[in-house]
DNA sequence: TACATTTGACCACA
DNA sequence: TGTGGTCAAATGTA
């Protein structure tokens, strides 16, 4: 586990320093520019940088998705097979939600009305995946669906994948609106890593999103277009010289999250995509000897 | 009675 | 051909 990582650690430190710099810039922009566009753009860069950091750290620490505390599951290494089954042309947004308790697991409600239409045992996953669609699918032709699956390692952690945006009356709901905005943002050409390798195909927007995800899988780490969590406030981001040590993440679903880190040189927290959250959790919380310690937890 | 959930079967994709 | 996603009949519940 230890030793021989000088080069990678240096690269990791460099990447994380860049993250730090971006967060500081983000804070400055949030103070000056009321429009979220600039901040959003920076968030994408931030996610990209974090992604690279994770890749470096993983190669450094000897990544073994199925080893350790976690069992083979639909994320991590086995995610490639699972994710590749997604239907083409259907954009998706991923989230991970943690219930405060097992009893509250059923209350992972995003405020929208869903109807369960199926459940499936997923290869390598301990828990089945539940399939939901909008209650108003037939009455209003709303095609929004979501899949919910419990994480093997943490029964409180639920991986939620939203497909499509609500077009029904409840689309006016804040959660639905946010989801819609995220989908639209992700579907913008050039968003994320700019991978447009499948341009010769029927280049609809959903397909381009799929291309982004495929590229991430190829890199050995699921890199989905960032789910734009937002900082609770510029001040709360605490990205100045005195790191507060945690960032509140405002989930569009209404659940508040914080990603905390601790390090002798200071602490920081970042808003990262859902898959990144898992990566962080697995990577940093399972390597107690590493100088960084990360904790992702629900703030409410 | 209306609506939601369960579950086996079928379909699409890689 | 195996697996994930969806359908639809059966069943449960308020």
Structure description:
The chain has helices at 6-32, 36-61, 79-83, 137-140, 174-186, 205-218, 234-237, 274-285, and strands spanning 92-98, 114-120, 129-134, 145-150, 157-163, 230-231, 246-250, 256-262, 293-298. The chain is an alpha+beta fold and 300 residues long. The strands form two sheets. A five-stranded antiparallel sheet has the order 1-5-4-3-2. Strands 6-7-8-9 form a four-stranded antiparallel sheet. The chain is flat and about 50 Å long. The chain has eight helices and nine strands. The structure holds a DNA duplex (14 and 14 nucleotides).
Mean pLDDT: 52
**What spatial order of strands do you see in the largest sheet?**
1-5-4-3-2
Tally the helices.
Answer: 8
* Separation, N- and C-terminal Cα atoms: 35 Å
Low-pLDDT windows of residues: 1-6, 58-87, 100-107, 192-300
Strand tally, please? 9
Radius of gyration: 19 Å
What is the approximate shape? flat
Strand content: 15-25%
Helix content: 25-40%
Class computed from helices, strands and strand pairing: alpha+beta
Largest sheet: 5 strands, antiparallel
Order of helices and strands: HHHEEEHEEHHEHEEHE
In a few lines, what is going on in this structure?
This protein has 8 helices and 9 strands. It is of the alpha+beta class and about 300 residues long.
Key terms for this structure?
flat, disordered N terminus, alpha+beta, single chain, 9 strands, 5-stranded antiparallel β-sheet, 18% strand, DNA-binding, 300 residues
